[in-house]
Amino acid sequence: MKIAVFASGTGSNFTAILEAIQSKKITNVQVALLVSDRPQALAVQKAKDHSIPVFTFNAKDYPNKQAYEEEILEKLTQRHVEFIVLAGYMRLLGHVLLNAYGRKIINIHPSLLPAFAGKDAIGQALDYGVKVTGVTVHYVDEGMDTGPVIAQRAITIDLDETRETLTKKIQEQEHSLLPEVIQSLANKEAAN
User: Nearest Cα to 110, choosing from 97, 96, 121?
Assistant: First the structure.
């Protein structure tokens, strides 16, 4: 199964996917493209270091979302991408990609959705004072973190928890859960 990973930042989940493929925790999956809306993102350099094709864009260079999504779709089609994984991609997808890929787009989010959707879920959880947060992998729809949940993992928030310690705990769970879900979806695709 050929996948594209969309990332806007450091690419820690992207790296976790690549490591899972290299260690055979994920089989029959190939990362065919990294898409980033931030050409300077660390994820872009990580893709180049692994000889993975990259498409970067600056949204301001396009008249609207449809225009840049049409170009992304063209790149996905050229590389025969079958599935999209959003791994720290900080833009909502529009109808161009949603219509083309439907239920073949997943996202990882650092909370137990529907709690703390949107930006800064870790900060939201700490500010709210909850005792448990977590990680969610879900299908992507037109809303912000509103698609059907595929898998979740709970994480206890300790009394002395800081943003840094909670981020580390969340990333550890993300880095194992996302590859597991990708493998599960690849198995389902292979069975069809």
Answer: 121
**Cβ-contact 36, 44 below 8 angstroms:** yes
Tens digit of each residue's pLDDT (9 = 90 or more) over 99-145: 999 899 999 999 999 999 999 999 999 999 999 999 999 999 999 99
Query: 2-191 domain in CATH 3.40.50.170?
Result: yes
The two structure tokens encoding residue 82: 């079958």
How many Å apart are CA 140 and CA 108, to the nearest integer?
10
- pLDDT for position 77: 98
Residue environment code for 3-20, b if the CB has 16+ CB neighbours within 10 A, otherwise e: bbbbbbbebbbbbbbbeb
Q: Which residue ranges make up each domain of the chain?
A: 2-191
Count of CB atoms situated within 10 Å of the CB of 87 = 23
pLDDT at position 48: 96
Residues of the chain short of pLDDT 70, as ranges, are none
Q: Which of 80, 95, 109, 175 is catalytic?
A: 109
What is the secondary structure of 119-171 as a DSSP string?
A: S-HHHHHHHHT-SEEEEEEEE--SSSS-SPEEEEEEEEPPTT--HHHHHHHHH
Q: Among this protein's residues, is 109 annotated catalytic?
A: yes
